[in-house]
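ok trying this again, last paste got cut off
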Amino acid sequence: MLYAKLPRAIASRVVRQFSMSTAQFFVAVLIVFLFVSSSTYMANQYVNQGPLGSIHFFTVVTLVFFLHAFTHIGQSVLLRSITPGVITSVVVVIPYSLGLYYALLEHRIMTWGTIWVSLPFMILIFPVLFFAHWIGKKTV
């Protein structure tokens, strides 16, 4: 289906990058989970004025999480079918993210300035994601 909808070179790259067993995918998701957990810990430290506090790292990670949900929706639109993650994106990720940002902005833990400053740094997450996929493929 991908080869019918995408240029051959792009379709081949997508298939090669995301062809994983369940165990390999688990390892990749575990690495991403540890990365997200560390950003959450640092955000907690920020709120409690701890030594490792950083709201910017948490903002970057949550923005990537939020915007990534739209890639699942785009995939479903492009392929005209349900794709992995689209229901979770629509039912869980997008509402959660909107609620999270509303609460953080309302309580002045995060500002719009923090969000705008963090946007360009989202690109730095891609090497982490590719590394997680690579580790997943190499360890299992």
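PB: full thing came through this time. The first helix runs from residue 2 to 5.
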